[in-house]
Design a protein that fits this description.
- The N and C termini lie far apart (65 Å).
- The longest helix is centred in the N-terminal third of the chain and has 18 residues.
- The chain has a domain of 176 residues: Sandwich (Jelly Rolls), CATH 2.60.120.
- The protein is α+β, with helices and mostly antiparallel strands and 260 residues long.
- The strands form 2 sheets. It has a 6-stranded mixed beta sheet, with no helix packed on it. Strands 2-10-7-12-5-4 form a 6-stranded antiparallel beta sheet.
- Bound molecules: fe (ii) ion.
- Fe (ii) ion binds next to loops.
Length: 260
């Protein structure tokens, strides 16, 4: 099990090319790495105040609709997925958009495109509740923002998406490079936003906090989740994709069949 702890080692979005200062020896072995998986994180600048406000509104939402909906959540509460349309959360949603658009820039996405929030919801993980292993179909970037995280209330887990790479597991020295990890856990931290590709398999451990009574909300883990996709900016010339230079796609109704 590997534990992500060192914030200083996190990657910033902007990459630099290695400088080639001198001619390498002819037998030098070069290493190139392709197909990396990006996970981004940032802490909210006014987390304490922002989280208090969010928790207050989410508590009210929960009190009005305790049934919620069921997705990857087991035992926990999953709100309706229209949080991005609810104006009381706009103060947070706006900041979230800014961060996702930073990723768009950092990933060199087309400048005429921007982030589009597809859905957004709140989670309350009560004692023993967890989120099963899943991906977010149809999402380009997904993520979680933590509001309240009592001790042992469940870390988020990501696994190496290259299924074939799990077939052979070599032995490593104690300090293996991060690029060789097969799984990683992030400790939930109030005010922290974690963003990951929607296709990246993840799950959340059960809330095993025992410091509070089972129905004491102080012992529950509160978080937000969301899915973003890429859309063209208004008034730009970027066109929706029509297929691979094929002249555009067709529906079955478009097909005329004639007798020979
Ligand atoms: Fe998820």
């Amino acid at each position: 099990m590997d534990q992500h702890t060192d914030k200083k080692q996190s990657h910033r979005p902007y990459t630099t090319k290695p400088e080639q200062t001198e001619k390498p020896p002819t037998d030098m072995l070069f290493r190139e790495q392709w197909f990396p998986t990006d996970i981004w994180f940032v802490d909210h600048p006014t987390a304490e105040k922002t989280n208090q406000r969010l928790i207050k509104d989410i508590d009210r939402w929960y009190d009005r609709d305790q049934k919620g909906i069921v997705r990857s959540n087991s035992l926990g509460w999953h709100s309706a997925v229209d949080m991005h349309h609810r104006s009381e959360y706009n103060h947070f949603t706006k900041w979230l958009f800014e961060k996702v658009n930073e990723i768009f820039k950092g990933m060199s996405y087309h400048p005429d495109t921007q982030a589009f929030c597809d859905n957004m919801w709140a989670n309350m993980n009560m004692r023993y509740s967890h989120n099963r292993n899943h991906v977010h179909p149809g999402a380009l970037w997904s993520g979680v923002y933590y509001l309240q995280c009592p001790k042992d209330s469940g870390r988020i887990w990501f696994t190496d998406p290259r299924g074939e790479a799990h077939c052979m597991v070599p032995r490593h020295s104690k300090h293996k490079d991060k690029s060789q990890w097969r799984e990683v856990y992030y400790e939930p931290t109030p005010g922290r936003l974690i963003l990951f590709p929607g296709w990246l398999t993840h799950e959340v451990e059960p809330n095993l906090n025992k410091e509070f009574e089972e129905d004491d909300r102080k012992g529950w883990r509160y978080s937000l989740s969301f899915n973003f996709i890429q859309r063209a900016k208004p008034n730009t010339t970027i066109k929706e994709r029509k297929g691979h230079d094929s002249g555009g796609g067709v529906f079955i109704e478009d097909l005329e069949v004639t007798d020979e």
